[in-house]
Design a protein that fits this description.
five-stranded parallel sheet, single chain, binds flavin-adenine dinucleotide, about 25% strand, 7 helices, six-stranded mixed sheet, alpha/beta
Length: about 350
């Protein structure tokens, strides 16, 4: 457990809190803020070893352009800003832990247990688990496991690690095209391979990629990767097979396959919640599931008109917090207040 300043440690005793949040993605983090304004304390559990969810795991260095009031921010910067924003509320984070079971106690509260043995007890549980645990699809190339993490990467954490390398990217979607464009200026050489000469990516990215190919700044082949060659996890070359089945060897020290993600809902499927196509249906007044006291916000929920956008999740977190307050503090009145004018909110934020 840590509050972003201490190292995580095993936690044997049950911890009681106001709200348990499953998922420390952008929406789980913003929920801490909305709940914090109402004096509700939170514990967050995330399988990943850091906060940010998809933003930090899948696109930490990619710019996001549709966060209100912030014209451009990368996935990592947005996460850092959210962490800064929630700092006054001292949420406790349990990273590297999977929320694995959820049961209702006799006293009406919920008990959540993680795979690390942490037991959390609270009247409210907020599921902000995105698509659940997302795992990249591994291409069926013999022995690829031996190169994963050293030469084969399913996401880009630090662009600099590809500087001066012979980079091979495979795939035809937005991730493959975006990273082709972003890494082209950094890599020693960059080759994109896809099994056909058609892409599922944004047209402007495809156009830009084709310009780079025409200028001979990157290579593109309609081909698939058949074999990896190297030793000790260090890739040296790959065997590519073209549409005509002809094979050739191509130097490569880094291979980035972008074949999409397999979303595994994981243990949440066994929490006894009503699910529809692996999503949790909610009402749009409180974002509560059909089980009282369990809310679902962000990418994990579904309702008519749902858009899987960060800004939608932020709105959902605000409304959820109002409803969660009434469950956690049944005898207290909730007064709607603005942060601009409420000295009590400003005090909580440490600015007054
Ligand atoms: C390439 C890409 C680009 C994008 N660009 C934009 C954009 O420009 N604008 C925009 O608004 N949106 C964008 N999105 C979508 C945006 O990232 C998501 O809407 C957002 O991340 C959803 O946040 P979340 O907190 O609901 O879920 P997530 O970010 O998925 O976080 C969920 C967290 O829950 C954890 N978790 C799941 N199950 C468990 C469990 N059982 N126990 C413990 N932890 C668990 C996961 O590890 C994860 O950290 C983009 C997505 C991708 C992939």
């Amino acid at each position: 457990m840590n509050d972003m300043s201490e190292a995580p440690s095993a936690n044997a005793a049950a911890v009681e809190t106001d709200v348990i949040i499953v998922g420390a993605g952008p929406i789980g983090l913003f929920a801490v803020f909305e709940l914090g304004l109402l004096d509700l304390k939170c514990h967050l559990v995330d399988i990943l070893d850091r906060p940010g969810g998809q933003c930090t795991e899948l696109y930490p260095e990619k710019p996001i352009y549709d966060i209100p009031g912030i014209p451009v921010v990368t996935g990592q910067e947005l996460t850092d800003r959210l962490l800064e924003q929630v700092k006054p509320f001292h949420a406790q984070y349990h990273f590297g832990e999977m929320a694995s079971s959820l049961v209702k106690r006799e006293d009406g509260r919920w008990q959540l247990i993680t795979d690390a043995g942490t037991t959390l007890i609270a009247p409210v549980v907020v599921i902000a688990a995105g698509g659940g645990s997302f795992v990249p699809k591994r291409p069926p190339i013999p022995g690829i496991e031996a190169y994963e993490g050293s030469s084969v990467f399913y996401s880009v954490r630090k662009m600099e690690q590809f500087r001066g390398k012979d980079v091979l990217i495979a795939g035809g979607g937005d991730s493959a095209l975006d990273w082709t464009l972003n890494l082209a200026p950094i890599a020693k050489s960059l080759t994109l391979v896809h099994h056909r000469d058609g892409f599922r990516a944004a047209q402007h990215s495809v156009n830009r990629m084709r310009e780079l190919v025409d200028d001979k700044r990157i290579g593109f082949h309609v081909a698939s990767v058949k074999a990896l060659h190297g030793a000790g996890g260090q890739l040296e070359a790959v065997t590519l097979a073209g549409a005509d089945k002809k094979e050739w060897r191509q130097p490569a020290n880094a291979f980035l396959p972008f074949f999409g993600l397999t979303i595994k809902l994981g243990p949440i499927a066994n929490f006894g919640l009503n699910l529809h196509e692996n999503l949790i249906p909610v009402d749009t007044a409180k974002f509560e599931s059909s089980t009282a006291g369990i809310f679902a916000i962000g990418d994990i929920n579904s309702y008519p008109g749902k858009l899987k956008l960060i800004l939608s999740g932020f709105h959902e977190a605000a409304l959820m917090a109002q409803a969660a307050f009434h469950i956690c503090r049944p005898n207290e009145k909730l007064r709607f207040q603005y942060t601009t004018s409420s000295s009590s909110l400003q005090k909580k934020l440490g600015v007054a």
